[in-house]
Amino acid sequence: MADQDITLLAQTNFRNDSVKFGMKEDDRRRHTYVLGKTGMGKTNLLESMIIQDIQAGRGVAVVDPHGELVEGILKYIPNDRINDVIYFNPADYDFPIAFNVLEQVSAEYRHLVASGLLGVFQKIWADSWGPRLEYVLNNAILALLEYPGSTLLGVMKMLVDKEYRKKVVAKITDPVVKSFWIDEYSKYPDRFQTEAIAPIQNKVGRFLSSSMMRNIVGQVKSAIDIREIMDGKKILLLNLSKGRIGEDNSALLGAMMVTKMQLAAMSRVDIPEEERNDFYLYVDEFQNFATDSFANILSEARKYRLNIIIAHQYIEQLGDIVRAAVFGNVGTIITFRIGAEDADFLVKEFTPRFDETDLVNLPKFNIYLKLMIDGVSSEPFSASTFKASDISNQPEDLDTDVLIDKIIKVTRERYATQRTVIEEKIIRWSGVNDEKPEPKKDNKFRKPNNFKNNNDSRQNNLNKVNCSSCAKETFVSFVPDGKRPVYCKDCLNKVKEQKNTPPPRIDISDKVNNMKSISLKDALNDDETVDFKNNKKVVKEDPKTLDSGNIVNFK
User: Coil, helix or strand for 167?
Assistant: First the structure.
């Protein structure tokens, strides 16, 4: 076995007997699980493993919700691998990289994409998640997966735009999904439909209202091909720093990317297993992306040569399904110092060599592990991890700032698109700038034509619109919303006069003098009979008149 086929992990430290050891390529296909409190050395271990993979020419993807791991790795990229790097950084606001999770998904895998998206949405909004929300959102995603050129932006449009929905439904081949939109959703009463889509608009709309997210997931053609990255042994570094892009955005992008990697790995069924290049997926703080569908990845990834290394801080972060999948599928278990509750759970894996006290008192950068060796799990033993600088073969005098700038420049040139170009395309798709026909001159209210910002210094900060009543051009100091009428000065005065004019009163004196009583039906009250002849009761303080809008029945 050549040294390049072994990834160094650490060196033993039992009775000062230091022996370097690592993992063979085949053993890494059974996945690796790393657990430990914050600050104990997990990131350092992952960094040293990733650097070795990159230096050995292997394909690597790193999902980092903090950003520090990925930013540290950039310093160790060899010159001959710079062109293999794709640095996906959503915080690079002016140069977004397109990533469309709905793009070209085969029919047999559409349910995986839908369940993956629903899983992360449910994880983020666990407290307010409901069956109706899930039902409608699932059908929206499944419908868009069949519609060419769709993106996540289509979810909102599918719910409220009848014309767009009609186009999408025409392309649906799944009879169950099609029946939902034709026989069920379209027949919802307006009030029920509003109640059904409001939670989706509130939650999904929150993501899409961010221009940063919209410019990434709203592009039709993805700039990165995960299958090509895997087969071509490229390096995908995902800087999903929560502090820069937000916790929910980080979780959504990470979960979507992991789902896409699962689909890309499964699509490798079209080539023989021995011809599939090993690809290493590192997921730090993976509880952020650990939906129930992640369990399927752990159980199925090995045969597709997707080798997973996951790390996080404590077991309670995992749901029951994911926890069972982790401990049922990973081959190598590595633990740094952990808490007492985790020690009670994990001691079953390390007994009798180590007990709970050992697990909660480990020094920094020290580990206990059960190592997969030729397909068999070893007895637990202790070790000390390496520093990333000890593993790297980078020259000591290398200017890392120049290296990082070069990597970012290459990624921008090959995979990114300028923000202004993307925003223009999204605006055209959304129809915001669609031209409206000239208004007819009648007395009906109408939406104003698209307003134009007037650059004349005399009309500074005003917007030019057409009056909703007379269609005359006028200027207003606010931005019209297209829903409420906008008037010129003359029409506005007329409207105010109409509002200030008291409603007409109806003279019924001739009738009242000859009638014993009348029946008064108010718009808000039940029928009421009022006796004028005998009791002289007063209606609206005047027995001879009634307000406009009342109905009077004479008896």
Answer: helix
Distance, C-alpha 173 to centroid of its chain: 26
| Segment 129-169, tens digit of pLDDT | 888 889 999 999 999 999 998 999 999 999 989 999 999 99
Angle at 540 between CA 536 and CA 505, to 5 degrees: 115
Range with the lowest mean pLDDT among 223-232, 390-399, 478-487? 478-487
pLDDT at 349 over 80: yes
Helices (H) and strands (E) in the chain, counts: 22, 21
Token pair in block for residue 207:
């993501």
- DSSP-based three-state secondary structure for 334: strand
- CA torsion 493-496-498-502 (nearest 10°) is -140
- Phi-psi map region of 382: left, alpha, beta (phi>0 left; psi -120 to 50 alpha): beta
- What is the number of residues in the chain? 555
Report which of residues 100 and 481 the model is more confident about: 100
- Taking residues 223-241, report their average pLDDT: 95
Q: pTM above 0.85?
A: no
Question: Over the range 331-360, which residues count as b (16 or more CB within 10 Å of their CB) and which as e?
Answer: bbbbbbbbeeebbebbbebbeeebebebbb
Separation CA 210–CA 248 (nearest Å): 12
**How far apart are alpha carbons 492 and 483 in whole angstroms?**
17
| Cα–Cα distance, 99 to 212 (Å, whole number) | 12
How far does Cα 476 stand from its chain's mean position? 38
CB 251 within 8 A of CB 94: no
Residue found under tokens 């104990």? 40
535: number of Cβ within 10 Å: 9
Closest CA to 87 of 553, 495, 343, 412: 412
Write down the pLDDT at residue 518: 52
Q: Within 13 Å of residue 478, how many CA atoms lie on the same side as its CB?
A: 8
Provide DSSP, 83-135. Answer: GGEEEE-TT-TTSPBP--TTTT--GGGHHHHHHHHHHHHHHHTGGG--HHHHH
> Angle at the Cα of 345 (from 62 to 123), degrees rounded to 5?
50
Inter-residue contact 356 to 340 (CB < 8 Å): yes
pLDDT digits (tens, 9 = 90+) for 256-285: 898 889 889 988 988 998 889 999 999 999
Both tokens assigned to 64: 């980092």
Q: How many CA atoms lie within 13 A of 386 on its CB side?
A: 22
CA separation for the pair 207, 216 (Å, rounded) = 11
Angle, alpha carbons 59-270-149 (nearest 5°): 80
> Taking a C-beta distance cutoff of 8 angstroms, is the pair 369, 335 a contact?
yes
Cβ neighbour number for residue 449 with a 10 Å cutoff: 19
| Cα-only R_g, the chain | 33
Q: How confident is the model at residue 457 (pLDDT cuts 50, 70, 90)?
A: very low
Tokens 């469309």 -> residue: 100
The Cα 469–Cα 487 span in angstroms is 7
Residue with tokens 């007409």: 504
